Amino acid sequence: MKIVILDGYTLNPGDLDWEKFQELGELTVYDRTSLTDEQEIISRIGDAEIVFTNKTPIREHTLKSCSQLKFIGVLATGYDVIDIIAAREMGITVTNIPTYGTASVAQFAIALLLEICHHIGHHSEAVHQGKWETNPDWSFWDYPLIELDGKTMGIIGLGRIGQRTGAIARALGMKVIAHDAVISESGKEIADYVELDELLSVSDVIVLHCPLLPSTRGIINKNTISKMKDGVIIINNSRGPLVVEEDLAAALNSGKVYAAGLDVVSSEPIKGDNPMLKARNCFITPHISWAPKESRARLMEVAVQNLVKFLEGCPVNVVNK
Q1: What does the mean pLDDT of the chain come to?
Q2: Total domain count for the chain?
């Protein structure tokens, strides 16, 4: 059985290994495959029966051109890079990785928030540049420092990651409220569920942990921002298109929004004309919430098990049943 991994580098830049995949078949790993050159994608899949992809798209024409394909494993939670309808019609099983980064993504959301509150990176650099040594006072700070205790965090999307973020926020002394279409008992233990307008109006910090759906696309826009407290902080390490970037940039530049911490943007890698790059007090990281080694190792293990279960005739984590 031939197994092809189209874009393995981000999952495994060399600190993990592909051994468990190799035990299941003849493995070929490409660090990167073109996202736009369909002929390259087709040629690399070739006559393989199994293919894994993270961001390399596999559309209907590719599926029809690779007649031996039986299984596609998406090395991520989102699977919009696959034409799952065409795959289902052709009898090709598509799986994803629904749970692997809960702890790391929640931790990163809080890291973004704490950086905004304390500017730790900046102050460390200032010390190394000699600013503390030459300062007339025994202590200094270049930005306002923010204490979170007693403030309100509003979480839009209270699934596994939202609940973990909420638990950390509570440990910091914050009150946690949430808005979600689904109300769960485990969620009630972490946060008070409220309507979206109430969350927008009372939150000091708003964190996005919701999936990208028609109902959530652009949920942060000039209308919803207008309902927020002056000086609110917004954190998004979920999906870039949840935010209308022009509207958030304008709110940051006007001071309506005090700061934003973003690990995702609307088009990735970020484009040079993205308005967030020039927005005031905007912290942007390159989509790395998921990337700690521990998280990637879990992702790889789930991907292997998805294939094992498929080969055993009882597939799991199937997204195109």
Answers
A1: 97
A2: 2
